[in-house]
């Protein structure tokens, strides 16, 4: 579904991603692992349109999407989990979902004055969808709670819910497990799996929690120093000597610093 072809990105003298190539197959939950500084986030930023590659190509269903803005990619169905912005803390869970669909009619004064019936019908449809999403994620009980009062895990579920308000085809999840307790982590993993199987979402997941990667992701791609070191089944990647060396090398480097 997404093909990364020989993609590189440098920031001044720092080569963050270097000749990186792999594919995210349709219907997969592809895990992206690698030691700190391997280039995972930079690569995600390029897939999601937040950064343009220095060289190389990114294809989506065969179409060249290299350098397209995140807004354009969003409309094509490539969605990155949004960290819930600070100002949205003051909105309820339901409202956080309802503001996601872009270009709603009620945003235009012309429509609210001259086409109030159509605006109301669209709002009712967005409300129905938001309530359905809350039910799917078993979050109905926090429908009217301010997002700022939710636990870390509930926020992650709500972020996943926000991707469900769009017509997502590919969802990029950046460390979904970080700061989430074990109970909610299971629920989050179950929801991701259910979205993958029932709604056909393709996922790419950056994650440091190896339990989550092993239970959720296939295949797993391991990056080191900006390129793909190896990829395949989690067990094979984990037992690859080069992977171990890359992680050990990175922690030795950090310890020295
Ligand atoms: N905006 C930037 N300016 C300069 N250097 C950057 C920038 N963004 C990333 N880098 C560098 O690029 C390299 C790759 O960073 P990146 O954040 O992509 O790695 P990562 O694999 O996501 O690491 P982590 O697991 O720690 O999040 C690092 O050396 C980092 O310092």
Show the helix and strand layout.
Layout lengths: L1 E10 L2 E11 L4 E5 L6 H8 L7 E6 L2 E2 L5 H7 L1 E3 L12 H6 L10 H6 L1 H21 L15 H13 L5 E5 L7 H17 L3 E5 L3 H7 L3 E5 L2 E6 L1 H5 L2 H16 L1
Helix pairs in contact: 6-7
Bound molecules: adenosine-5'-triphosphate.
General description of the model:
The radius of gyration is 20 Å and the shape is globular. α7 (182-198) links the parallel β7 (170-174) and β8. The model has no long low-confidence stretch (mean pLDDT 88). Helices cover 41% and strands 23% of the residues. It has ten helices and ten strands. The longest helix has 21 residues, at 116-136. The strands form two sheets. The chain has a six-stranded mixed β-sheet, sandwiched between helices. The protein binds adenosine-5'-triphosphate. It holds the Pfam family BCA_ABC_TP_C. It comes from Hwanghaeella grinnelliae. Residues 2-250 form the ABC transporter domain. This is ABC transporter ATP-binding protein.
Question: Quick recap of the structure?
Answer:
It comes from Hwanghaeella grinnelliae. Residues 2-250 form the ABC transporter domain. The protein is α/β, with parallel strands linked by helices and 257 residues long.
Specify Rg, calculated over alpha carbons: 20 Å
Second-tier CATH architecture of the largest domain: 3-Layer(aba) Sandwich
Q: Mean pLDDT, as a whole number?
A: 88
Number of helices: 10
Tally of DSSP β-strands: 10
The unique ligands bound to this protein are:
adenosine-5'-triphosphate
CATH class label of the largest domain = Alpha Beta
Low-confidence stretches: none
Number of domains: 2
Oligomerization category of the chains in this entry: single chain
Write down the CATH topology of the largest domain.
Rossmann fold
**Looking at this structure, what is the CATH superfamily of the largest domain?**
P-loop containing nucleotide triphosphate hydrolases
Quickly give the structural class.
Answer: alpha/beta
Strand order of the largest sheet: 6-7-8-3-9-10
From the spread of the alpha carbons, the general shape counts as globular
Q: H/E order of the elements?
A: EEEHEEHEHHHHEHEHEEHH
Query: End-to-end distance, in Å?
Result: 40 Å
The percentage of residues in β strands lies in: 15-25%
- Most strands sheet: 6 strands, mixed
Helix content: 40-55%
């Amino acid at each position: 579904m997404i093909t990364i072809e020989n993609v590189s990105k440098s920031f001044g003298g720092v080569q963050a991603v270097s000749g990186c190539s792999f594919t995210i197959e349709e219907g997969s939950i592809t895990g992206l692992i690698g030691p700190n500084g391997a280039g995972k986030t930079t690569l995600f930023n390029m897939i999601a349109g937040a950064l343009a590659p220095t060289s190389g190509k990114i294809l989506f269903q065969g179409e060249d999407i290299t350098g397209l803005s995140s807004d354009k990619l969003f409309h094509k169905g490539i969605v990155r989990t949004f960290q819930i912005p600070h100002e949205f803390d003051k909105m309820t869970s339901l409202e956080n979902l309802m503001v996601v669909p872009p270009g709603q009619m009620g945003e235009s004064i012309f429509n609210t004055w001259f086409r109030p019936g159509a605006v109301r019908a669209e709002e009712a449809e967005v409300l129905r969808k938001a309530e359905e999403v809350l039910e799917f994620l078993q979050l109905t009980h926090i429908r009217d709670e301010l997002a700022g009062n939710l636990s870390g895990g509930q926020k992650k579920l709500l972020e996943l819910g926000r991707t469900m308000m769009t017509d997502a085809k590919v969802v990029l999840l950046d460390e979904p497990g970080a700061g989430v307790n074990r109970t909610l982590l299971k629920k989050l993993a179950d929801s991701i799996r259910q979205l993958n199987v029932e709604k056909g979402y393709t996922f790419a997941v950056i994650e440091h929690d190896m339990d989550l990667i092993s239970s959720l992701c296939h295949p797993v791609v391991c990056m080191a120093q900006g390129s793909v070191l190896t990829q395949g089944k989690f067990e094979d990647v984990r037992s690859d000597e080069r992977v171990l060396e890359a992680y050990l090398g990175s922690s030795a480097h950090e310890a020295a610093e």
